[in-house]
């Protein structure tokens, strides 16, 4: 189980290339929720999402042999950009598998960061299994989405929350594979066991939440539009941590997430991707349970496309 | 004439409440411009724009008598939120005049920061003249838009650019009343006289640019949609500084600004208000003059409304 000590050890590797993100207070959002509302702006990161913290810590901790072989992963989203960013920072070659027909703007972003993007297979699972095999053949290092070194790195934003606002009472955090929620909970609960940490997932992709509630790893249908929350098969290591540390884990409907994107735009003038807005959707659903309290909403990422945003603003 | 020394003196007052904003490198924007492109993210400030730096420096430097009388200004935009933020930080009362029918969401934002908002008159000039009179009667401190203490404060972002990327070759900065362009030019040119600083204004509100080009204060028709660039009557003190320090001052069409908002959304996943996007519009227009160089675009603010954004994304 990762500890606050691991997060502290990750910190110099993260701050070598990044700076702490702001935690801003938004009075008009607070009026909406009847609470004191702060937003942790992980959307301000260079690749637009919290994951880059984990990538930098992982790459910093690779052995010389692993560095020479290069790193391999599969992603169509923030994980891929994070690994590409970290590889470039250390002058390593990153190879990222994406399914055929992957979003060209996301491919361009990874290539812009110096990664080699390889198209393979019809879907993400096919691409990932193939690239694991490629990494093995070539003596490269495959990077999975919930490795402990990633959790240690992303936990640095949880620590920043506790340092900036030690009196926080509730932290609401989106859950995809769970690394962000785990890192946050480890930092927050170690420093103040009284702070509540609540996970949020889309009701249209409830595998992690159902596994948490039932205590058994459970797959579930995955139909959400929220790419960062789209987990079909739950991850055992993050489940174990979340079962120990989360106070609650709730589901919000995709339609509530879309409304939260609009509200964040209006009240904070920040772009949120679907996963990033899930924390506000969760707070709105919790209602009376957060009223009158000091709450932090983790805006985990802002990578939404102009087309998607246009359709949201017109619906 | 303000100096780098003034900016350094402002810095502790600014950093008492704010942290440096990121300067991010965007490879895909760079491909578009054939240059190495960095964006200075003043849209990440707590009130969404660079001006808050100036407000904090001004309020920190008030005398006890001025603090007791409270501060008064007129604004429907970022200046008002900046003054409200700074007043709250120091526990002072801010009174902000807006014209009747002012945008309710901007009024709510200023009230959320603890300011008293007073509606008066049909337009901004009427509201401003009235509140100057009120301040005089009540013994309060009226705050104008281009006071030197504001320039010293906003100059801290120019200094951050030079500290983070000392090898920068061109900085492109939007001009409204000119405080941002002045602060940037003072910091940049003092540290490296070889860096080019280029101002950008909307062709639909060219008063400052025409005054700069002709060497004579010149009013001009003001029809721009870019609120932050909407200066009808030029300011003498910022003109004087810009005449000495800007390498060029160009006009971009409102339609080019709108396209730049869309491009920033796509390539950086950041919201820009019209003024904030003018720097990218300027770089695109400069074309060959920035090709192959290291350039910084100042994204001065992100306060655009959801309705305006929706209409932009659909045009």
UniProtKB/TrEMBL annotation, chains A, B:
The source organism is Desulfolithobacter dissulfuricans
Which InterPro entries does the record match to this protein?
Ser/Thr_Dehydratase (IPR050147), TrpB-like_PALP (IPR001926), TrpB-like_PALP_sf (IPR036052)
Biological process annotations from GO = isoleucine biosynthetic process; L-serine catabolic process; L-threonine catabolic process
Q: Which residues form the Tryptophan synthase beta chain-like PALP domain?
A: 18-301
Give the UniProt family note.
Belongs to the serine/threonine dehydratase family.
List, in alphabetical order, the Gene Ontology terms for molecular function in this entry.
L-serine ammonia-lyase activity; threonine deaminase activity
Taxonomic path: Bacteria, Pseudomonadati, Thermodesulfobacteriota, Desulfobulbia, Desulfobulbales
* Cofactor(s) essential for the protein: pyridoxal 5'-phosphate
Q: What is this protein called?
A: Serine/threonine dehydratase
Matching Gene3D superfamilies, A to Z?
A: 3.40.50.1100
Q: Which UniProt keywords apply?
A: Lyase, Pyridoxal phosphate
